[in-house]
Amino acid sequence: MSTETLQQIAETNSWGSIYPELILGVLALALLALEVILPKFAHGLIPRIAIVGQLVVLGYILFIDPVGCCSGEFFGGMLSLGPMGQAFRVFFLIASIFVSYLGMVSLANKTLPRIEFFHITLVITASLMLLAQANHFVMLFVALETATVGFYVLVSYYRNSALSLEAGLKYLIMGALSSSILLFGIVLLYGAASNPALAGSSADSLNFANLKAFLEANPTDEMALIGMLLVISGVAFKIGAFPFQIWIPDVYQGAPIPTTAFLAIASKAAGFAMLINLVNVFGPLSDWLVPLLTGIAILTILFGNFGALTQRNVKRLIGLSGVSHAGFLLIGVVASLTVDLALTAILFYLFAYLLASMAVFGVMVHMPKEDETELTLDDFADLSKKNGFLGMVLAIGIGSLAGIPPLAGFIGKLLIFVAALEAELYSLLVVAIIGVVVSIYYYFGWLKYAFFEIWKFLDEEEEAKDEPIPGSTLGFFGKLTLLVAIIGTALLGFYQSPLGSWLAGS
Amino acid sequence: MNEFSSLIQFSIAIPIVAAFLTLFVKNWGRPAVQIIGVTGFAIPTILALLLWLWYDPSEPGGYAFVSNFDTGLGIIGASLHLGLNGLSLPLFVMAAVVGLAAGLFAAQSQAENLHRYLFCLLIMQSGLLGVFASIDVFYFYFFHELALIPTFIMIGVWGGRERNYAALKVTIYLTLGAMLSLIGLIVLYSKSGADSFDLITLKDTLAAQPLSESVQRYAFGLLLFGFGILVSLWPFHTWAPLGYGAAPSSAAMLHAGVLKKFGLYGLVQIAAPLLPQGVSLWENWIIWLALGNVLVIGFIAMAQRDLKQLIGYSSVMHMGYAFLGIAAMSALGAGGVVIMMVAHGLTVALLFQLTTVIHHRAGTFEMDEIGGLAKKAPVLAAFFVCAMMASIGLPGPGLANFWGELSIFLAVYEFKNWLIFAVVAGIVISAIYGLRAIAKVFFGDETEAFQEAQKEITVKDITWAERTPALILIVVLVFIGLFPKTITSSLNDALKSEPVYSQTAALDIER
Questions:
Q1: Is A101 exposed, middle or buried (0-12, 13-18, 19+ CB in 10 A)?
Q2: What chain A residue is nearest to B148 in terms of C-alpha separation?
Q3: Phi (first) and psi of residue A109, to 5 degrees
Q4: pLDDT band, residue A467 (cuts 50/70/90)
Q5: Which residues of B102-118 are buried (b: 16+ CB within 10 A; e: fewer)?
Q6: Residue A275 pLDDT exceeds 80
Q7: Chain A residue closest to B193 (CA)?
Q8: Cα distances (Å, whole numbers) of residue A98 to A235, A359, B23, B45
Q9: 8-state DSSP, B59
């Protein structure tokens, strides 16, 4: 990076535009300081401070600065602020507040360091928020790596659990591999677009706008094409798309539930935030990009759904069903090249997915299971009898993931389908229908355990009486969190105006 | 907008409100739950009857009681656009009446967790009324799904034997059907260029500029098979007898009686008028598959020993007539289909209810293990004979079914002469299994198995709690049978204004 660029960054910086990220960063550091300052008995306050701090930032974005203080490009074109970035900011904040809550519940009776979990969660959230607004490959890579390194730690956070460590190692190796693939792709793009012999080249060729201009001038440049392929591969790892989805079941199973939720919700959404921006940049290469993404989407949907069919471990099941959701979202991404509606559809789908996942993970974390990596469908048997509230939350969450009307997940799928039809992606629609029908089988199977009486031996029933009741750890705030998730899910199914019009504006 | 249009909104909203109220009053005891539940069914029925009385299709597109509300799906041209026309009004009233009967029957049943049972049933009722009141095609689908989900839950939780398997199979089949029809509806939205899911707008746009032949072919194909699976078109019918066999009686009454008509209604009201060419392209498919319903399923029904399965198969069989009526593409055929849907909805609900009443007395559905029940329960026998006669369509002008089947037969005869033989064979088949069921269950001597069962159950005649819902259904059935003009006049006007149907002779039943 030349001194000229650095100077430009210094001239166009606008700290006001990234207040939310700055506050989160300061808050993260403050948590560490508080651990030293506060007496031991007051340490329970620190996670609450983290959550309240994030709620304040959320309130700031939603009520004080809902459209982003000042749209445009800042920091020498490193960041581009706009309504879509704002939507993703809100998304990541809600996800991270929820993950902090899960962390509080999950770490409550464990002899593990606690404050670091919330610290890292905040750092990851801030970097994901920056990632969604990145307008330059350098910014994109730095933000992405900050988040990924944080995730390495969070995945292996239960350092006394062998599976958690194994998951951490797998995630580290796969993550490092995908980062290097992404970086190699970026370098190739840089090499191609900085060649002064070619039309459209520029000194700052990693800026999205400059790169797009270059690709428009040279839509058949081999080096740029390979670079594009590698960058898309790196992103495919993040969203868990075929053929980079292999790590998902193992890592999801081994990681602590809060981390699994964070990976499933925020990390996946971050991948799509990147992808939406990148697909726009790579638009001139759409002759190659569309078949590539179409193929990935088809295989992702099929792999996710058929893989999930036989799973009994719920974390693996959620992981693979998440793969299929990535496939549905990819349909929206392909459609976004030609149809404007697709962007709204993707964002709506993501928010519906966020609320539904909150409900499902919120139930999972309250299941009384010693070893949470072994949480299987059997553990959910008769949940609705043991705790009717958790049963209802699970039903609404899974129903929304399955795309059953009148829940939010259905409206998300509907918008994606409409966008796909407008874009005339018929093969993708056929696969999507197969995916939806197959997914009913495993989602329904889960609910079957929770709701329909499962036949048991008498002595087993005797034993079952001594088992702890699910949801005994559920306090007032736990109920509130779950209520927000299910009421949001149900409400968005009937009345989409609030979210819909806000997203349509973005 | 007119002064009564809010009545439609109330009739859809009240069951939902009542559903949540039943959950809140569950600690006040069973009577409170029963009263709230039945009220939730009764008020929409009264409102539906009032709407029937005040019906005046003066608003655009031949609708009455129109209201429009944007819920936020304006970006894809969908809004909650409610109203009734001559086609949907009879079905709306039928849905309300069958709902009331099912609700009354459920309230007096011994179901565990009655409040949750009524909750599911009330949500279903709300969806059903919404289906027929929606002018917006998207909400038409949306309300169908709203009504469908409780069915799955009710089969799985309160169902009879094989309920887990049945619930799963029904869910997967119906989801597939629903997905195909959803895609078909989105094709209409996207290819018509109307950028709207509104049926009136779609009709106007497509009347001015019909879709090309290839688009009509695959759009209608999607709708035909999507709706077909939902209506148990042969050979996609296998979920129906299994599901009805396992479903608790009130759920079976509402699903077989009302919800299944969604697909047929969709074909008559949406698919055929919007895609007239599609119908003629798929004509042969419809005819042969419908003959499969009438003849193949007819023979399967004859072989049934289980009374509930028999009713399930007979309901699948009658759907074949409806498909034939649609294939005829005439005012007579389409009108016949609507009358038949109304009559069949009332009849099949009545049959499922009475079957359960019989089960409470005999302890079994096996027809070979009952016999001579008429001596012990003469009123029940009279009800059942009446219901079965209505289902066969035989005893002529007294019951509503006759008018529906008669006009379908005439339409089919005008359409393709030879089909009349198959259709008449179907009547003979249903007469055979229907009369045999009556004979086996109610007449002859008591079987040994039935005498065994009587040691444990004292067989009484049908009680008033069970009699009320049955009487409601029979009264409406006879009323429409005696005064078909009450629904056919508005139906006629609606069909005449529909170009695809009006080219042929209109149906005109005067009596």
A1: buried
A2: A405
A3: -115, 40
A4: low
A5: bbbbbbbbebeebbbbb
A6: yes
A7: A422
A8: 24, 10, 29, 45
A9: B
Kindly provide the b/e burial profile for residues A320-342, where b requires at least 16 CB atoms within 10 angstroms of the residue's own CB.
bbbbbbbbbbbbbbbbbbebebb
The residues near A124 (Cβ < 8 Å, ≥ 6 apart) are: A96, A146, A147, A150, A151, A154, A262, A266
- The kind and range of the H/E element at B422 are helix B419-442
Task: Specify the DSSP element, H or E, that contains B416.
Answer: none
**Residue A150 CB-half CA count within 13 A:** 25
Q: A440 to chain B: which residues are within 8 Å by CB?
A: 171-172, 175
pLDDT digits (tens, 9 = 90+) for B137-182: 888 888 888 888 888 888 878 877 777 788 888 888 888 888 888 8
Q: Is A87 helix (H, G, I), strand (E, B) or coil?
A: helix
Sign, CA torsion A444/A450/A456/A460: positive
Write the single-letter amino acid at B316.
V
Comparing CA positions, the residue from B494, B499, B501, B492 lying closest to residue B62 is B494
Model confidence band, residue A462 (pLDDT cutoffs 50, 70, 90): low
Separation between Cα atoms, residue B293 and residue B338, nearest integer Å: 18
Q: What is the reported pLDDT for A232?
A: 92
Structure token digits, residue A26 = 């300061």
Task: Give the pLDDT confidence of A132-165 residue by residue, as tens digits.
Answer: 888 888 889 999 999 999 999 999 888 888 888 8
Of A410, A422, A496, the CB nearest to B71: A496
Residues of chain A contacting residue B130, judged by C-beta atoms under 8 Å apart: none
Put simply, the answer to whether A415 touches B189 (Cβ < 8 Å) is: no
Distances (CA, A) of A286 to A221, A343, A422, B55: 13, 17, 17, 55
pLDDT at A50 over 60: yes
Give CA separation, B144 vs A353, B67, B96, B102, B126, in Å.
Answer: 23, 19, 15, 18, 10
Beta bridge partners of residue A81, listed in sequence order: A72
- State the Cα–Cα distance between residues A74 and A70, nearest whole angstrom: 10
pTM: 0.86
Chain A residue at shortest CA distance from B69? A495
Q: In this predicted model, what pLDDT tens digit does every residue of A278-332 receive, in sequence order?
A: 998 888 888 888 999 999 999 999 999 998 888 888 899 999 999 999 999 999 9
Residue type, A429: L
3-state secondary structure of A116: helix
When mean pLDDT is compared across B283-292, B350-359, B373-382, the lowest value belongs to B373-382
Give the distance from residue B176's alpha carbon to the nearest chain A alpha carbon, in angstroms: 6
Structure tokens belonging to residue B363: 């302890």
For the stretch B5-56, pLDDT in tens is: 788 888 888 898 888 888 888 778 778 888 888 888 889 999 888 888 888 7
B33 CA: distance to closest CA in chain A (Å): 18
Supply the DSSP string of B61-114, one letter for each residue: GGBEEEEEE--S-GGGT--EEEEE-TTHHHHHHHHHHHHHHHHHHHHTS--TTH
| Chain B residues closer than 8 Å to A500 by CB | 72-75
Residue to test with chain A: of B183, B185, B211, B229, most A Cβ within 10 A = B183
Chain B closest-CA separation from residue A158 CA (Å): 38
- H helices of A134-205, in order, are 137-155, 162-193
Residue B510 has pLDDT above 50, yes or no: no
Rounded distance, CA A332 to CA A329, Å?
5
| Chain B residue with minimum CA distance to A497 | B72
| Interchain contact, B168 vs A441, CB within 8 Å | yes
Both tokens of A207, joined, read 């800026």
How distant is the Cα of B71 from the closest Cα of chain A, in angstroms?
5
